[in-house]
Amino acid sequence: MKRNLVVVGILLVFGVFVVESCNENGCSKALVSNYNSHESEKMKDNCMDCHSPNGTAGGCFRVAGSAADSIQGDSASHNSVVKLYTQPLGAGELVVSMQVDRSGNFYTTSPVSFGSGLYPAIVSGQGKVRYMPNPTTVGSCNSCHGPINPKIWAD
Q1: Contact between 43 and 66 (Cβ < 8 Å)
Q2: Pairing of strands 81-85, 119-123
Q3: Cα separation of 67 and 79, whole Å?
Q4: In what order do the strands lie in the sheet with 119-123?
Q5: What is the pLDDT of residue 20?
Q6: Which segments within the chain are labelled E, that is strand?
Q7: Can you tell me the distance from the alpha carbon of 22 to that of 33, in angstroms, rounded to the nearest whole number?
Q8: Which of 8, 11, 103, 111 has its CA 20 to 30 A from that of 117?
């Protein structure tokens, strides 16, 4: 009985430590981008380098990236919406929808189940839709778009 109490005590202390360390890194902070916000900073970098459990910024992003106004432009596409669907070309279930903020970034800390892959789409402020033809199983959009593949653009 005494041994069980010691084990339970150790587990409780460990649990408090884990929760506190997660809160210190900002993982418990709920963040979702919106048209009117401009708190995000570095358009084009991989957002999840800093917004992760071991990162230096608040909030652990599940999906995040940047959207430009054109494939050549560096201006933010701040009235756009990024959506993730279960099927290609906007078919199937809409899993998540994120507004692009004034800095050109979109993000959410809400849990997203990618399963075998989700199909991204971006809708410009004028209603033009662009679809990514292949599914993605990760939410760090800028880890590919920009350095390897063309940037995400709406118009």
Answers
A1: yes
A2: antiparallel
A3: 10
A4: 94-99, 81-85, 119-123, 129-131
A5: 37
A6: 63-68, 81-85, 94-99, 105-108, 119-123, 129-131, 152-153
A7: 21
A8: 103
Helix (H, G, I), strand (E, B) or coil at 124: coil
Residue 16 pLDDT more than 80? no
Helix ranges restricted to H, the chain? 2-24
155 token code pair: 């118009």
Across residues 77-95, what is the average pLDDT? 95
* pLDDT at 135 exceeding the cut of 80: yes
| Boundaries of every domain in the chain | 1-29, 31-153
Q: Name the pLDDT band for 11 (thresholds 50, 70, 90).
A: very low
CA distance 102 to 42: 12
Stated length of the chain: 155
Phi, psi of 12 (to 5 degrees): -65, -45
pLDDT at 111 over 60: yes
Q: Which two tokens stand for residue 141?
A: 């959009």
State the amino acid at position 12 in one-letter form. L
Contact of 98 with 19, CB cutoff 8 Å: no
